[in-house]
Amino acid sequence: MKFLASDLDGTLFRDNKISEKDLDALRRLKAFGNKIIISTGRSLKGVNSILKEYPFEYDYLVMCNGGVIMDNRNNIIHEKSIPNKIQNRIIADFYDIGDSLIYYDDGNDTYMIENKLVDVSAVDADFFNHFSNRVTLEEALSSVSDSQIMSVFNVSQSIEKSELVREKLINEYDEYIEAFRNQVFVDIVAKNCSKGNAIMMILEDENKGVDSLYTVGDSMNDISMFKITNNSYTFNSVEELIKPYADNLVDHVFEVIEDMLR
């Protein structure tokens, strides 16, 4: 038995779809008795919005960059959240940083904090459809819930600005959180949470070693997956900074599965 751990956005879900070639390959992988782990920064609501339109059988969901692990019946195997006190401190500290916006997810829904000083006119309107709940800064700071994941992102889509935000988060909150750059999003999760750590928990539960694991992703938040196996893959089209962390370069997920089935 082999395990495929695949990122979702930018990896399986590209150009707002999962290709038929990738879907067919995933189904063949399952037909030969292997297991699939979807490993994403999304929460369950965001994952379901994709899998409802592009269904395939999976075995585990690693969500919120490792903050939540579920089985294929949506039973929570592991969960770790950012304490509300830390969440609110981060919101207060980063609300006015450049042209950035903040969202957070408490496990029930995702909330975008409105900021009228940030010009969003250049942002694709469809992007904001992901955030059905818009809240004011005051409403966000009055929340008493913990967060499974938070994210700070700049509307100018600058990788440089995102890296500066990530460094500032680590410098000021390293005791409490992990911060990963996912394209221009800086995803924030509880301390010691990562995709790699979550996948290791799954393998331990399955009593399997890392030799059985294949991973594929396209961004910095996937590097923790690459580091735990010698069967790691990323795309020829990704940032040059990411490529050295992966063992193999491909163009599509189905190519990874072809290697697994040889």
Automatic annotation (TrEMBL):
Pfam families: Hydrolase_3. Keywords: Hydrolase. It comes from the Bacteria. One of its GO terms (cellular component) is cytosol. The keyword Membrane does not apply. InterPro entries: Cof (IPR000150), HAD-like_sf (IPR036412), HAD-SF_hydro_IIB (IPR006379), HAD_sf (IPR023214). Coiled coil: none annotated. GO terms for molecular function: magnesium ion binding; phosphatase activity. This is Cof-type HAD-IIB family hydrolase. It comes from Clostridium beijerinckii.
